[in-house]
User: Fold this.
Amino acid sequence: MEELNYKEYLNKYGMKSTKQRNLLLNILKNIKIPHTAEQIYLKARKSDALVNLSTVYRILEKFTEKKITLRTSFMDEKCVYSLFPTTHQHQLICLRCKKVILIGGCPLKEFEKTVEKQTDFSIVNHRLELYGYCRDCQKIIAAN
Amino acid sequence: MEELNYKEYLNKYGMKSTKQRNLLLNILKNIKIPHTAEQIYLKARKSDALVNLSTVYRILEKFTEKKITLRTSFMDEKCVYSLFPTTHQHQLICLRCKKVILIGGCPLKEFEKTVEKQTDFSIVNHRLELYGYCRDCQKIIAAN
DNA sequence: TTGCAAATGCAAATTATTTGCAATAATATA
DNA sequence: TATATTATTGCAAATAATTTGCATTTGCAA
Ligand SMILES: [Mn+2]
Ligand SMILES: [Mn+2]
Ligand SMILES: [Zn+2]
Ligand SMILES: [Zn+2]
Assistant:
């Protein structure tokens, strides 16, 4: 964790720079996979700055509203948050260890056009996730 | 609502035929879009047979386990249930009126193979939903 | 520096879903 | 058909994630 001040950045979004928000931005910058509000809260506790869990929820809500973060929810599980991706991408999720791999490249452009013609819908976005087993988990499963 | 007895069908799955289960099967058969447990419960109450909400949850849980129903959860919202589709299909959802259109034909087979090669994952399924505006809602939005 | 709106902490509320347990109902079989 | 054996149900209470009310604190613009 280096930089702990995102004042300009936050002000640009009309948000005050608080130690809690700076801290969360820093945490979000350093995580490689999406985290739940509670996971982020637990990381925050480890730092010297204290944050309350409701504050974490409130901050993530505001960040999501401003598209600073992306809020995702898998099948049944809790919502997870990550910095909003700069490019359009999709996720490949391991059903056993929950590892997430981001995949660039979207296979849906043509399909969307076809569907638009067939249905008269105007499609504005989509959600695509692939589920499977990562190499490690494939081995573990095979060994049982 | 015609037939109210699915005894053979339920027994085949190792489940007893109860008036609650028969009723739910009938409701599920007649709905055109996925419903929440509570929506199904409310429809059930309208019939003469009484059902408890926890029972509805328990029945839907068991149905889902047996793949009689499909349990889906959109972004933040509650889980919804529908009869398990006989063919692989995806949903096109209107962001304004929440209408759901089912679309047959999956554009992902080739893409999955490519991703498997790139990532060493073994892909077992995927989730694809398209979001947009239905024709009616497009008009309404344009008129504002 | 001060004033005020925005942000926070804390506890309590909400909401969807699940669970324990005693009562009831469905099936198998005597 | 009567009975025994389980599975299923109803009801109330528990859980778990998220949200909210309110008093206090903080950031920042004037
Ligand atoms: Mn895409
Ligand atoms: Mn598909
Ligand atoms: Zn894995
Ligand atoms: Zn619509």
Notes: Helices of chain B lie at 7-12, 19-30, 37-46, 53-65, 109-119, 135-142. The radius of gyration of chain B is 18 Å.
